[in-house]
Amino acid sequence: MSSTTFDLYLKETAVLANQYQKRLQQVTLRLQQNHPLSDLEAAGVIHTLQILIENAIGKAKQLLKYYNQPIPTSAYDTMRALVDIHQITPEQLDEWYAIIGLRNRIVHEYMNLDVKRVLEVVKQEKYRLVTTFLLAPIQDVEP
Fold it and tell me: Which CATH class is domain 3-135?
């Protein structure tokens, strides 16, 4: 991927992250004020989280590619590799593992997904690590 293509990718990623962050901020405020969501709204929140997390995993893989690093198949291994190239901190890794686990439950265990727990994640603004990562410029550190 050329530098220009990579820059364009990062800009597109940030546009999507900004849009979805605004949606989640609106929902967060409603949840913090104890306003219930309809089933349709809750489904929209779940979809928004899934897309944001997928976007972050995609950015992580593109960063590895940018730094000429191997690209793991596993999202968990991908985020671990970002620690090695100084794009996330080791302290963030457990939180990223939880985020990836949430994405896996949304995608693969949707019949057993506890919507109340997902909404609690949003209420506590735990999605902010994802949006911060997506909106952050790459760290100019060579691995």
Answer: mainly alpha
> pLDDT by residue (tens digit) across 17-75?
999 999 999 999 999 999 999 999 999 999 999 999 999 999 999 999 999 999 999 99
C-alpha count within 13 angstroms, C-beta hemisphere, residue 49: 31
CA atoms within 13 A on the CB side of 106: 24
Q: What is the pTM of this model?
A: 0.92
Task: Name residues whose C-beta falls within 8 Å of residue 56's C-beta, 6 or more positions apart in sequence.
Answer: 99, 130, 133, 134
Q: 113-138 burial, b if ≥16 CB within 10 A, otherwise e? A: eeeeebbeebbeeebebbbebbeeeb
Single-letter amino acid, residue 48: T
